Amino acid sequence: MGREGINIAHCGNLYIADETNNRIRKVTFTSTPVITLSGGTSATIGTSVTISASLIGTGTNYSIKWYNKGILFSTTTIPSVTYTKTMCTDSITAHVYGCSDSATSVVKVIGCNVGVVGLQSAGSAPLVYPNPVRSELTIEAVEAVESVIVTNVLGQVVIKSEKPNGERSVIIDVGYLPAGVYVLKINGLYAERLIKE
Prior knowledge:
Blueprint: E1 4-8, E2 14-18, E3 23-27, E4 34-38, E5 42-43, E6 48-56, E7 63-68, E8 71-76, E9 80-84, E10 90-97, E11 102-104, E12 108-112, E13 127-129, E14 136-140, E15 147-151, E16 157-162, E17 169-173, E18 180-186, E19 190-196
Parallel strand pairs: 5-12
Antiparallel strand pairs: 1-2, 2-3, 4-6, 6-9, 7-8, 7-10, 10-11, 10-12, 13-14, 14-17, 15-16, 15-18, 18-19
């Protein structure tokens, strides 16, 4: 029997040098990665926020794509990211690409710190869905929705609705808007990135 050498690579794959048969044999380590996010649950708009990820089954060679409300904002090769908070409610997800597979984290919501009044006074941000949206956008808030303003990336107002119905649940037609990224403002106190498909 000939000589054999064994090596374990960074992903846990096993390589065996089989000199007798002039071959290098590979035994693949297969693992479905798991990614879990941690960090604070609220921050002040304009401050830096750091989110950390706990990784299982990725090996040492991986990359993470970080998303806020479905929009990619960073790619890292370390298990953390820092970003500047610009919206009152951020929905952070991370997608890890490991050695043999990929996985997506559950959503981590980062809300606003104290000092925000109106819609935030009851401790809950408005629920805005679906986002991304195609035709009708639903807004459900703790207090009555008095105004809804949608601006484009240039800051131009494309939808302005004062006292839409004075209710806590409002439906806004956005079907005629071109596809793109917008900013939705509710009662002048809450802002959220809106994606129109």
